[in-house]
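Pasting as-is:
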Amino acid sequence: MIVTLWGVRGSVPTPMTSDEYQDKLKRVLGQADGADLSDDDKIEAFIETMPREDGGVVGGNTTCVQVSDGETTIVCDAGSGIRPLGQKLMGSEFGKGQGEAHILFSHHHHDHTNGFPFFVPAYIPGNEIHFYGVHDALEERMVGLQVREYFPVPFHVMGSQKHFHQIEADVPFTIGEFEITPTQLNHPGHSYGYRFHWRDKVFVFASDSEYKNPSEEEYEHYIDFMSNADLLYFDGQYSLVEAFIKEDWGHSSAMAGVDFAVRSNVKQIVIGHHDPVYADVTILEMQQDAIFYREFNYPDAELEIGAAFEGDTFDLSD
């Protein structure tokens, strides 16, 4: 099972500003003082030594996570990150009208759906696109994204074959070799996370949720949902202070993610759904805060903690 992050921002697509780029460039030039940059190999070697916030970018696309085993293509949410995913897929069977994709929706807020009208494989006759969701009226929701008042191409004009699957919370279903279980999370209008079981590996996608004062039953349900995951994608949009200030907005903090991950025996957590106001440096500082939090509160825990970057790939096949 390979998990690839195509969109890791929350709320709205967030291109890097000129000021942010210049700040990054200043840091890079400062590190380059005295470095041997005489050829491409030496330049690449220098780039590999830079801190992650300087050697790459977090990215500004909204939520889209690909899960694949080489045979089956599954996509969690269709935020703006699904557009570059679609471009990548066009180099495979999707470019020949022979592709099949399965799109699972956590919910239908704009930042989780706004990329679908730009998903090129959906325009190619012969491709098959399957849509899954716990919310009702799934087809009507998708059609509504592309009414002529808001988008020039109606949903049903797109050339692919489209199939709609109504699924139920806590009822497992299968796609290829994947057993998938949706679970209700705490978000305005409800959001649903997904637990993927493939052979002996587990990936949990838990975006858009707030974990405010859960009942004992709810708490245990979350623990079961995340238990023994090899990888957990967790909504850590806010700092710990902001999570209190923005109560009931439906998002969480990296610290809450660490608490759940340690108590659920998760191996690795990646914090995503980054706030659009945060620069890359701030996001990496929040990652470090989460690491300090784990070291102080769970000194024996072996949990790996990382901030989500577009393009990150996690191979859980080993």
